[in-house]
């Protein structure tokens, strides 16, 4: 049986994902880490980091906490402004 496709997220959610991804990328570059290096530090695959940085997916809270720790920053620094 064919399952319906996931509905498109609302614009505000897509923008939040993009903001988080940009913050992850900027912090990763500031920490002088490659995508591979960050992926290894958080126990994930490089494609996971790519998808987060591009805003394709949003990381679960636990993964966001691992990312912040690996980058040496407070988790709040990865969250978009309200």
UniProtKB/TrEMBL annotation:
Residues 24-78 form the HTH cro/C1-type domain. PROSITE patterns: HTH_CROC1. Keywords: DNA-binding. The keyword Signal does not apply. The keyword DNA-binding applies. It holds the Pfam family HTH_3. This is Helix-turn-helix transcriptional regulator.
């Amino acid at each position: 049986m064919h399952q319906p496709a996931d509905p498109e997220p609302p614009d505000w959610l897509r923008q939040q994902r993009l903001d988080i991804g940009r913050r992850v990328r900027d912090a990763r570059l500031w920490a002088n880490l490659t995508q591979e290096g960050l992926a290894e530090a958080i126990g994930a695959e490089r494609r996971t980091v790519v998808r987060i940085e591009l805003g394709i997916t949003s990381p679960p809270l636990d993964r966001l906490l691992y990312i912040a720790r690996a980058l040496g920053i407070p988790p709040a620094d990865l969250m978009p402004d309200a």
